[in-house]
Amino acid sequence: MNPLKKLAGQTAIYGLPSIVGRLLNYVLVPIHTAVFLPDKFGVIIEMYAYVSFLVILLTYGMETAFFRFNSKEENNKEEVFTTTVLALIATTVIFITTAYIFAQKIANFISYPDNAEYVIWFAFIVGLDAISSIPLAKLRDQNRASYFAMVNLVSIFLNVGLNIFWIGYCIPAYHEGVSNIFTEYFFTPTIGVGYVFIANLFASALKFLLLSPIILKAKWKVDFGLLKRMLSYGWPILVGSLAIIVNENADKILVKWLLKDEIGVDAATAEAGIYGACYKISIIITIFIQAFKYAAEPFFFNQSKEQDATKSYALVMKYFVIVCSFIFLGVMLYMDIIKHFVRNEEYWVGLGVVPFLLLANIFLGIFYNLSIWYKLSGKTRYGAAISLIGASITIVLNLILIPRVGYLGSAVTTLICYATMVVISYYLGQKYFPVNYPVKRILIYLTAALLLYFGSTFMSIDSQFVLYGINLLFLAAYIGLVIILEKPKKVLIS
After folding, report:
1. N- to C-terminal Cα distance for the chain?
2. DSSP-derived secondary structure letter, 36
3. Residue 80: enclosing H or E segment and its boundaries?
4. C or N terminus of the chain, fewer CB within 10 Å?
5. What whole-number distance in Å separates Cα of residue 90 and Cα of residue 355?
6. Rounded-to-10 torsion of CA 474, 476, 482, 483
7. In the chain, count of helices (H) and strands (E)?
8. ∠ CA 417-423-429 to the nearest 5 degrees?
9. What are phi and psi of 195, to 5 degrees?
């Protein structure tokens, strides 16, 4: 099978849970923003920002290390799996125990002194997800995409279903004075936004249970020599991943922490909520990127054994940018429709950040593509260094810009950070693992999408019907450009 077709198929299957999950999160966004004001929604945004850091810490690069060492013929696949799983179980138990003991102190530190239970709930969520990452990785490695999709989808549906029940039904029903078996026996009004976290906990527990048959197949014997080599390979991945998470989520935390002294904790949390809600709109492009990432990592490692591997990498990059640029254009041209996913108009003041965040995510996806050079060459320390540079940019620029322009500074910072990382990674990659990427063609597609979007902003048309029709022509123009440039050239035989 053509490797690109195989990757496309795997992206679709592996991405199904991500796509469904993200789309269902679209269902949750209007529910959450309709029920919770920005200051409460900001709690959700902040807590999940912390979670993103903790998941990386608890997996400490072992997922990528698993793929790397599992692909080496000299290694026993079962030993690699067993060693990885047992290491994560041990560190997870230590983490959960520590979080439980110091829950109140942690809650005080993050300004939620009355909600120490959040710390405990999230300790279990993060711990279960960390352990689950390796059996899920094994399914990806074995190309058991259907099983992978089933496990994730069941977990997602439970999470969303419980959110709809508690947030979408019980809270409004309680405020309307409705009294029935659901509001009396399955709902406590004081928990409020905490039900979002409880739903996540149930979903993570279910995922773990569904994957437990795979975990139980482990031999329960750690190869410490192998573990040492995996940790040596994985720690730069950990550093790099942490740096990437700083780039992705530090802004959601810093908005509150940098503004709370000036405008108060509640108002600062509300600002974080507005930013987080508008960030959700850019989720359309992250759906594709996440799906691509799930399929691409094992694909890139397996493809490395082929003679024309670098050619495949170049083609993947080009078509990745084509799709992402089209998504960017579609979202921005029809923002008047898409914004209604955020139900409460109080959040719409932050829509100006969306184009910056969409572009930033495109550059992040490009960086994922480029990162194959240091993963395949074993120079993971370079990847860590690049991500650390990005993290430094994120922290410094956020510290400078957030106090001056609020969350808009965070969006601009995110774009600058990822663009810088792409440039650095590209030039280092050409030195250590050259791939003939079609840079000019990629720049043409990105520029075309931007120009078409900016062109649309100068139109002043009262009729929405006419405007949407014109925007459709803009999309058609982009597709036409792709068709013209990618049309196979005829070869004349004399």
Report:
1. 33
2. S
3. helix 77-101
4. C
5. 43
6. -150
7. 21, 0
8. 130
9. -65, -25
Q: How is residue 474 written in tokens?
A: 């803009």
Q: How many Cβ atoms are within 10 Å of 367's Cβ, its own excluded?
A: 24
Q: Would you list the domain boundaries of the chain?
A: 3-437
pTM given for the model: 0.78
Strand runs (DSSP E) across 51-190, as ranges? none
Q: Where are the alpha helices (DSSP H) in 433-463?
A: 439-457
CA dist 259 and 70 (Å) reads 47
Q: What is the CA radius of gyration of the chain?
A: 23
Q: Can you read off the two tokens belonging to residue 317? A: 């990059």
Residue 300 CB contacts under 8 Å (≥ 6 apart), including other chains:
313, 372, 375, 376
Write out the two tokens for 339. Answer: 């914004």
CB burial class (10 A; 0-12, 13-18, 19+) of residue 270? buried
337 CB-near residues (< 8 Å, 6+ apart): none
Given a cut of 80, whether residue 41 has pLDDT beyond it is: yes
What whole-number distance in Å separates Cα of residue 211 and Cα of residue 140? 13
pLDDT digits (tens, 9 = 90+) for 204-237: 999 999 999 988 887 778 888 888 888 888 887 7
